[in-house]
Amino acid sequence: MSLSPEQQAEIDELRANPQPTLRVVAPGMEGHLYKARPVLDHGFVRVVDYMGDDAAICQAARVSYGKGTKSVQNDEGLIRYLMRHWHSTPFEMCELKLHVKLPVFVARQWIRHRTANVNEYSARYSILDREFYIPAPEHINAQSVVNNQGRGDVLEGEEAARVLEILKADSARCYDNYQTLIDADGVGLARELARMNLPANIYTQWYWKVDLHNLFHFLRLRADAHAQYEIRVYAEAICEMVSDWVPAAYKAFEDYRMGSVTMSAQMVDCLRRMLKGETVTQENAGMSAREWREFQEVIA
Amino acid sequence: MSLSPEQQAEIDELRANPQPTLRVVAPGMEGHLYKARPVLDHGFVRVVDYMGDDAAICQAARVSYGKGTKSVQNDEGLIRYLMRHWHSTPFEMCELKLHVKLPVFVARQWIRHRTANVNEYSARYSILDREFYIPAPEHINAQSVVNNQGRGDVLEGEEAARVLEILKADSARCYDNYQTLIDADGVGLARELARMNLPANIYTQWYWKVDLHNLFHFLRLRADAHAQYEIRVYAEAICEMVSDWVPAAYKAFEDYRMGSVTMSAQMVDCLRRMLKGETVTQENAGMSAREWREFQEVIA
Amino acid sequence: MSLSPEQQAEIDELRANPQPTLRVVAPGMEGHLYKARPVLDHGFVRVVDYMGDDAAICQAARVSYGKGTKSVQNDEGLIRYLMRHWHSTPFEMCELKLHVKLPVFVARQWIRHRTANVNEYSARYSILDREFYIPAPEHINAQSVVNNQGRGDVLEGEEAARVLEILKADSARCYDNYQTLIDADGVGLARELARMNLPANIYTQWYWKVDLHNLFHFLRLRADAHAQYEIRVYAEAICEMVSDWVPAAYKAFEDYRMGSVTMSAQMVDCLRRMLKGETVTQENAGMSAREWREFQEVIA
Amino acid sequence: MSLSPEQQAEIDELRANPQPTLRVVAPGMEGHLYKARPVLDHGFVRVVDYMGDDAAICQAARVSYGKGTKSVQNDEGLIRYLMRHWHSTPFEMCELKLHVKLPVFVARQWIRHRTANVNEYSARYSILDREFYIPAPEHINAQSVVNNQGRGDVLEGEEAARVLEILKADSARCYDNYQTLIDADGVGLARELARMNLPANIYTQWYWKVDLHNLFHFLRLRADAHAQYEIRVYAEAICEMVSDWVPAAYKAFEDYRMGSVTMSAQMVDCLRRMLKGETVTQENAGMSAREWREFQEVIA
């Protein structure tokens, strides 16, 4: 990703002028504001605005007049309690606004999370830039043979070269033709029609605003090891920002969501039997082969 | 409404310490932060936090890197265009967090607006204060005879006195008994049960967070002349705050929402005929008596 | 709860006239339609309409033209997979519409679940019936001493009698005065004002429509042993209906939600160590005393 | 659009077996169930399920036990009243489930309406069909010169031919290469990566479920003359289905939404002055040139 000098100048200007506010300020997040953190080959994530901090979560949980307790330790304990017991509304009291540049096929997956506000760059109104996602060689994988919805081994040599060759050539040709179509001195096709010739690895941009509870839900699914690599890198970039913004809430999220395991009624039953010394097998566990395999992975 | 010295001290402390931020600051809103604006006899509205300003609406609409245009005039034109043509997503990019104290029967109406985040004071966990809404004499009205869902004339003399007497006596008695029920040295009833003895004019509190688009929707319905007085005064208080926060967006809201009229296909047809000099009556207008009456009110 | 003869006649009429439809029919749910299942002393839950069944979940997950697989076993496996891996959208393809009569303090808790459609009986427009929730003696409990937000032991003897006496007397007096206030030949106060004199144990009614995914979320929280008894009985009544409607989805919900346990990163780590034979104590577990206690309860 | 014999057989089977139900049945909608109504060159809309009818709207508005009034006329009056006065919750009590096949660039616009449930065909898991939207000659338009976000005149002769040639050739080449990429005996690229080579005119499919209130909102924006043609034809197809399903609600929607005009405070003021005989010009109207032009269009 490279910003134009104009874009960089706009960002620099925004970062040059701190102003006084009476609102809650999260020092860890101020450092991120407006900067474009690169993701993939041309994408980025930028924090455009935020509301609240760890203390604001506690303040809302207590419906209090002031900041609430002075003790950071008490606040951490409360936040962990709220997270552990699925009290989600206090986390909804923090809000994050991002500017994201991302490939269209990633955007299509991302937008499935409906509880957020979105303004996307309009290809009916504007002309898209000539920027396409071309995967780095180490991220070109074969179809998984065990998971219909995932990747297997990294492709190498001739096969990887063939992938890159096709993606680059088709992107270039489609964009050349897009330009031919919209050229006002040539065909002059309406933009809302011409855009249909562009493949799903072209980059788009949007403003995306979400509350912390729904953001955690997004991050749990998309920063997960099973998420598609191309969206996971965005989620991981956001995780780092959130960790600087609301450190206590993020730690609780790591412990009780990202790193947690949900055990079914059958799994809990097996576990108790095993801890009592019983030998439990798939046969006497009441689980399907698939569930049993998942259970083994958890306790190994 | 009167704040306790502790509450006032907490508010004063929050207002005493401006901190530098790189975020957008709305000067008109900084003046409102944390102060408790009185509403009804014991209620209030306090701005606890906000995100964005008029320029942030335009910035999102343009999906831009910086502040966007330097011209305030251009921003106003864009905001009016967005409002007029129901482009709602840019307005969703501003967010407001309020602390509200309000009677339960008002809270029950307010919560019907689902697209907001809420943390309410828990009467399962805490003990409610002895504060009840008792209407001022000029807001004690008879049932309307024309509108099943509204108020008619102000009650006077003996009738108004009877209303006040009943409301005050029942509130006091119910609260005394609530105290008897929860008294740990007496009955010691669980709070989650004891609260059921309290009437709907008792005050509750909540943190309420909403984006500007959904807030405008709330204000259009609740600041309207047909809204119940007791919720309208809250909406009006919020209108004043929003007007100081995002003046251009608020003006567009006044012109295209609050002060606007939606005319049915039949009304528009009549209007055109009337402007051409035709005499239109209910008979040849294709409207019901009720619609015709509403139409007359609009054009009078 | 007792229905008036008119209400019973309306229900009987609705149940007397089956009509042919090409839509999916869930036989287990047809048996529940329109009947009023009693809950608490005057409340009820009635199924008014439903959309979809177990097969409809699979059909949506597969985006298929027809019913999808003919094999019930395959459908069950798919449903369990979807539930286990938090693929929530197929469950959103089923919808349930209920008519519920419930005390206002229960309604206030219920409405916190925002992702549903609601039409409540309007006390601005109509007059509420003289029906109040008075707990049965075995559900009158003291405040819990270990949980600020819960109930302890059942109250007995004089204390329980005092509770019933207060609740009954205050309900009766408040309703008498409500009638005095709205009496058109007397005070004639507007209904929207008079309702504020009614305590939170009065019954209200609403139509509530929700998709199956959000309903499961509601049931997980409200049919839980920690939920307040007065809302839990509603949730339990709905659980039985859902079990008859979508048996495979409900079984998966029981195994992977209701009966499941979410273990934190620390708990999973301890578990692995314990299964390897290590003696783990709170000291070397990295958990707070509270978390350790919760962990012990799970594995006991 | 052409269905495969298997697909047609599945649809025929679903339509061949009416079953008795006690639920509300909308005869006008039964006729549409499961049939695939063609839209564009390969797309379709199919009703998969529905809940409710006109009477169900009234029943919810009245929170009644039975069907409510027997009089169709009363129901129509109530529905028109509810629509006119923006009482949206009763309309939320009807629900529609559609199966839609549509080009990806249309799907991207459609999904912006967030208050619906969606299951889309997964190109991570499955292989997309070789079907691309190629506009009919009469729908190939130049970029509008007056509206940055719209179409101008139809292109003809050589220019139209060039558009078709480019769209067809790029679609074919991209799909050929997609096949090369995913071919298990060849490159064997993961499907989640290969899909990025496909242009936005490829067809996708989804199940889409929405309540009537939110559907009306969608239809008002997308069946509007200013909507892009390729989504408008889907909206128009749905309008016909809804008109057969809930005729009274649809008529009210036509009169008070689709055919209505919202007049700003300034417009209403001008109108009153004009009806009193005053000559109003842009200069003395308090409107911008653009608003004035829009006003002239309304009253002409």
UniProtKB/TrEMBL annotation, chains A, B, C, D:
The active site is at R222 (involved in ionization of n3 of dump, leading to its activation). SUPFAM superfamilies: Thymidylate synthase-complementing protein Thy1. Catalyzes the reductive methylation of 2'-deoxyuridine-5'-monophosphate (dUMP) to 2'-deoxythymidine-5'-monophosphate (dTMP) while utilizing 5,10-methylenetetrahydrofolate (mTHF) as the methyl donor, and NADPH and FADH(2) as the reductant. The gene is thyX. FAD binds at T89, R112, H113, R114, E120, D211, L212, H213, H217. The keyword Ribonucleoprotein does not apply. Pathway: Pyrimidine metabolism; dTTP biosynthesis. This is Flavin-dependent thymidylate synthase. Its EC number is 2.1.1.148. Keywords: FAD, Flavoprotein, Methyltransferase, NADP, Nucleotide biosynthesis, Transferase. It catalyses: dUMP + (6R)-5,10-methylene-5,6,7,8-tetrahydrofolate + NADPH + H(+) = dTMP + (6S)-5,6,7,8-tetrahydrofolate + NADP(+). Belongs to the thymidylate synthase ThyX family.
